[in-house]
């Protein structure tokens, strides 16, 4: 994708923190031996921010779940918003969850900017020109220009992005599904922005 020279790829984020919060909370509730705070940074989601584009990465925690429990957890993380809307009888969305996610992301951003500390985060970003993109799997970079990945935040924006080194086969399968859906979603977004406004 060709971008304007003024497009600040290091400073534009699609916040997927909500998906990470849900994963931490739901897994913590299931395990009952660790808090959601204990799982921060140890488990996270990559891919996108809707349904099957959300890919939970559990690292070693996968072994604490049966196959059915794993599938149920993945589904709950991917469709957690639907769960909230259903609980509210269709009369609202996950506003408190979104506020908490925004607070966490902005707090990390401010820590990076004000304190000059490099902070670990996960965000949906444009992969163009970012440090670390050359080390990402080509099956991602050849398919999409945007993807949610772990990244390092500094006062200047994104220092680098990375791909989890210990993705398991189930997670690879979910990434494949996510990429197919993301391609269509990204195309819709690009067409909306670049298309006629009337």
From TrEMBL:
It holds the Pfam family Ldh_1_C. Residues 16-191 form the Lactate/malate dehydrogenase C-terminal domain. Its EC number is 1.1.1.37. One of its GO terms (biological process) is tricarboxylic acid cycle. Transmembrane segments: none annotated. GO terms for molecular function: L-malate dehydrogenase (NAD+) activity. It comes from the Eukaryota. InterPro entries: Lactate/malate_DH_C, Lactate_DH/Glyco_Ohase_4_C. GO terms for cellular component: cytosol. Belongs to the LDH/MDH superfamily. MDH type 1 family. Homodimer. This is malate dehydrogenase.
